[in-house]
Amino acid sequence: TTSNTSVVSPQCYNYTLINDPTRSVNVTTGSTCDQSLFNSSAMWVRFVGVGGTQIPTSPVGISRCGTSATGWYSGQMPTGVNTTINGTVCYNYASNNCHWSNSISVTNCGSYYVYELSAPPDCDLRYCTDIPDDWITDTTITPIEGK
Which residue range or ranges hold the UMOD/GP2/OIT3-like D8C domain (predicted)? Predict the structure, then answer.
């Protein structure tokens, strides 16, 4: 007898929930630093709530998300369930969309993403969140009208 069971990535059920409305790309006040929340060892997180469920996949204006330098994901999102992709978070500051950066991993858990995040390279840098139009976003594919 063969079984067609898929193995769920462990990070899809073993993560830290972050429900923080001040991380939203729409928040224009505050100067919070993520270095106190994330330390040098990476941790898997899932963003939930009205602040957003995904790290944005395009640059966010400075002085948003409750910080000065706004963090956005500049890589490709994983499209297959239980797949993980390594990518880069860039921090927009001083007319440079990627003034600072750090490496992260993103896993597609089916109906949500989890992110393996560590402390940003400097203070006043913060991971932003947004509520996506679709729950899956692939920044390498341009949608075709009418398809």
Answer: 48-129
Q: Which residue has the tokens 């395009």?
A: 58
> DSSP labels for the chain?
----PPPPPGGGTS-EEE--GGGBTT-------TTTTS-SS-EEEEE-STT-SB--SS---SS-TTSSEEEEE-SPPP-STT-EEEEEEEEEETTEEEEEEEEEEEEE-SSSEEEEE---SSTTEEE-BB--SSS---TT-PPPTT-
| 33-70 tens-digit pLDDT | 998 898 768 999 999 999 999 999 999 999 999 999 99
Token pair for 123:
């203070």
CA distance 55 to 127: 7
CA distance 9 to 52: 22
125 in Cβ contact with 34 (< 8 Å): yes
The CA-based dihedral angle spanning residues 71, 75, 77, 78, taken in that order and rounded to the nearest 10 degrees: -130
pTM: 0.85
43, 80, 85, 14: CA torsion to nearest 10: 10
